[in-house]
Design a protein that fits this description.
Aspartate Aminotransferase, domain 2; 7-stranded mixed beta sheet; 33% helix; 9% strand; binds pyridoxal-5'-phosphate
C-alpha cells in the first residue's frame, strides 16, 4: 500500500484494479465502484472533524485525544489535578492514535464502504436457514416513534405503560400463533432463546429431582443446537436421519431412556422438510419422561397454518429477525422469544410483563418470590429488544391472520419454484421426498472433478447476488441451501435461477475459470480460513510490518 499524500488521496491498489479484463484506472476506481483505503490510511492524526473545548491540563499535559498533540491550556485550573487523582493513575500517556477526518470525509468513507456491501435492500439474499427477508418500512417508521425510540429501560413503570403494552400484545400474538401457554420475551437471538428453553427444561427436571444428562440432536441440526445443550451442561448425542432427510423415529425411540433430558428438533428441518412425525416424536419423548425443544427458526414456513403447541412441543424459540421480518443487523440486534408449554411456563426467566387490571407491571427479581417462585433467573440485563418488539408487532398487525397465512404459503411456493427450476442442472438430494418447505437444498454431486460448491458461490457474486448458504446442512455433500422467502417476485426469482443455472452448467462442464471467481467484486477470493483463525483486529501501519 502506498502512503497517503497530503490530501489523503492515494493511488489505487493493483489488487483492486485487476478485476476487469485489462482495464486499469489511475484511481483504482471502477466505474461508480469507488476504491476505498482503510480509514487509518486516509485520516491524519493531526486532523479533527469537531471543535472541542480544550480540557483542563493534567500534570501540565494537554489532551492526549484524537489529535494527539500536547496543547497546554491557557488557564491551568486546580480541577485538573483533582481529576488526575480520581483517575487513579490510569491517565493515558500516549496519543490514542485515532485517525482524524473532516465530517464530509467521514461520511463519504462509510458511504463508499456501504456500497461495497450487499444488503437485503439491494437484491435477493438467498441464504438458507437464515430467512433474510424484506424489512417493511412501516415497521421502521413505528420503531422510530419518539415514544418508543427514546425510552430508557430504567424509566419508572408508570412512564412506560405503552411499551409494556406492546410487549404484552406481541406476547399474546406469539402465544396465539404457536398454540403455546407462555412466552419468555427477553432472549436476544435464536441461540439465546435455545439456551433459555433448555434452561427451562433443566429447571423443570431439577424441580422434580430428575437429573438427566443427555440431549438428543438430529444430524441435520443447526450448530447452535448442540452448542446450546453442551453449554447448559448436557452431553449431546446425534440421532440419524432417514434417507429422505427426516429424523429417524425408530432410532430416536430406541435411544430414549431415563438419562435423556430432551430432544432438540428443528421443524421444518434444515433440509427444508416438514417433520411429519413430530406428534409421534413428542409422544415418545414425553412417555420417556423427557421434554421436546423445537428450533423454530423456520417458523416462516408454517406460520398461520401449524401451531407447534398442537405437536406436543414444550419450548420453541422464534427468531423475530426471521419470521417476523425485523432486521438482522451485523450479528444483532436480534430477538428470540421462547414460547413454552404449561409444563415449562413456571420456570420462565425474569423479568416479564404482567397485566393487573388496566396497568402493566414488570415482574422483576426481588418482587419475584411470590409472583414467580420457580423462575430459573434472568437471561439479560433488561427485558429484551424493544426496537424489535415494535417492528414485529407492526408486522403481525399489518398482515393480520390472512396475511400471515399467505406469508408461509408464498414462502413455500417460492422455494418449490426454485427447487423445480434447478433440479435438472443441480442435484437435489431430497426432491423425491415431495415438495420442500421454505428452502431448496442442492448438492455438488453433478459438478466436474475439482469444481466445488465454493466456486459456484463465488461465481454468484460476479452475477450480483449474495451467495446461498453453503456446506450446511452437513448431511448433504457440498450442500447449497437457498431460501428465497415470500418477498421475492417471480421476476427476481427467474433472474436468480438463470444465473445459478448458467453457473451450474459451467460447474458440470468443468469450467476452470470458476476457480477465479469472483472477478468483478471489489476484492477477489480471500483467505477466509486465515481471516477466521488469525483475525487482524487492530490496525498496523504497513510500513512497520515485518
Ligand atoms: C438462525 C438459526 C438459529 C440461530 O438463530 P440466531 O438468531 O442466529 O441466534 C438456530 N437454528 C436455526 C435452524 C437457524 O436457522
Amino acid at each position: 500500500m502506498n502512503a497517503p499524500n497530503a490530501s489523503g488521496w492515494k493511488p489505487g491498489t493493483p489488487e483492486a484494479a485487476q478485476g476487469v479484463s485489462g482495464v486499469e484506472t489511475v484511481t483504482g476506481n471502477r466505474g461508480l465502484m469507488l476504491e476505498e483505503p482503510l480509514i487509518f490510511e486516509i485520516g491524519g492524526a493531526d486532523t479533527c472533524g469537531v471543535d472541542l473545548p480544550t480540557p483542563p491540563p493534567l500534570q501540565g499535559r494537554g489532551p492526549g485525544g484524537g489529535g494527539g498533540a500536547d496543547i497546554p491550556h491557557p488557564n491551568p485550573s486546580p480541577e485538573g489535578e483533582g481529576l488526575l487523582g480520581r483517575l487513579g493513575g490510569l491517565l493515558r500517556t500516549d496519543p490514542i492514535g485515532l485517525p482524524g477526518l473532516s465530517e464530509p470525509e467521514t461520511v463519504r468513507h462509510y458511504t463508499r464502504l456501504s456500497r461495497q456491501n450487499y444488503a437485503i435492500d439491494c437484491g435477493i439474499f438467498p441464504l438458507g436457514s437464515c430467512t433474510m427477508k424484506h424489512n417493511p418500512r412501516l415497521n421502521e417508521k413505528v420503531a422510530r416513534l419518539p415514544g418508543f425510540a427514546d425510552l430508557h429501560p430504567l424509566q419508572p413503570e408508570a412512564t412506560v405503560q405503552g411499551a409494556l403494552a406492546v410487549i404484552d400484545q406481541l406476547a399474546h400474538w406469539l402465544i396465539t400463533l404457536t398454540g403455546m401457554d407462555a412466552v419468555a420475551m427477553s432472549p436476544k437471538a435464536g441461540a439465546h432463546g435455545e439456551l433459555c428453553g433448555i434452561l427451562c427444561i433443566r429447571a423443570a427436571l431439577e424441580a422434580r429431582g430428575d437429573m438427566r444428562e443427555v440431549v438428543l440432536v438430529p444430524e441435520s441440526a443447526h450448530g447452535t443446537n448442540p452448542a446450546t445443550a453442551a453449554f447448559a451442561g448436557y452431553r449431546v448425542e446425534n440421532i440419524p436421519a432417514t434417507p429422505e432427510g427426516r429424523v429417524d423415529l425408530a432410532a430416536l425411540t430406541a435411544r430414549l431412556g431415563p438419562d435423556v433430558a430432551a430432544v432438540m428438533i428443528t421443524n421444518p428441518n434444515t433440509c427444508g422438510l416438514f417433520e411429519r412425525e413430530m406428534k409421534a416424536i413428542s409422544d415418545a419423548v414425553h412417555a420417556a419422561g423427557a421434554l421436546v425443544y423445537c428450533d423454530g427458526a423456520n417458523f416462516n414456513a408454517i406460520v398461520g397454518r401449524v401451531r407447534p403447541g398442537d405437536l406436543g412441543i414444550d419450548a420453541m424459540h422464534i427468531n423475530l429477525h426471521k419470521t417476523f421480518s425485523t432486521p438482522h443487523g451485523g450479528g444483532g440486534p436480534g430477538s428470540g422469544p421462547v414460547v413454552l408449554s404449561e409444563a415449562l411456563a413456571p420456570f420462565a426467566p425474569l423479568p416479564f410483563v404482567r397485566k393487573i387490571g388496566d396497568a402493566f407491571e414488570l415482574i422483576e427479581e426481588g418482587d419475584g418470590s411470590e409472583a414467580a417462585p420457580d423462575s430459573f433467573g434472568r437471561m439479560t440485563a433488561f427485558h429484551g429488544q424493544m426496537g424489535m418488539f415494535t417492528r414485529a408487532l407492526a408486522y403481525i398487525l399489518s398482515h393480520g391472520a390472512d396475511g400471515l397465512r399467505q406469508v408461509s404459503g408464498d414462502a413455500v411456493l417460492n422455494a418449490n419454484y426454485m427447487l423445480r427450476s434447478l433440479e435438472d442442472v443441480l442435484d437435489a438430494p431430497f426432491a423425491a421426498s415431495g415438495p420442500c418447505m421454505h428452502e431448496a437444498l442442492f448438492s455438488d454431486r453433478h459438478f466436474a472433478e475439482g469444481i466445488s460448491t465454493l466456486d459456484v458461490a463465488k461465481a454468484l457474486i460476479d452475477e450480483g447476488f449474495h451467495p446461498m448458504t453453503m456446506y450446511f446442512p452437513l448431511v448433504v455433500h457440498g450442500a447449497m441451501l437457498v431460501e428465497p422467502t415470500e418477498c421475492e417476485s417471480k421476476a427476481s426469482l427467474d433472474q436468480f435461477i438463470a444465473a445459478l443455472r448458467s453457473i451450474a452448467e459451467r460447474a458440470r462442464s468443468g469450467d476452470q475459470s470458476l476457480h477465479q471467481a469472483p472477478q468483478l467484486a471489489p476484492r477477489r477470493r480471500l483467505d477466509e480460513t486465515l481471516a477466521a483463525r488469525k483475525p487482524v483486529l487492530a490496525y498496523e501501519d504497513p510500513s512497520s510490518r515485518t
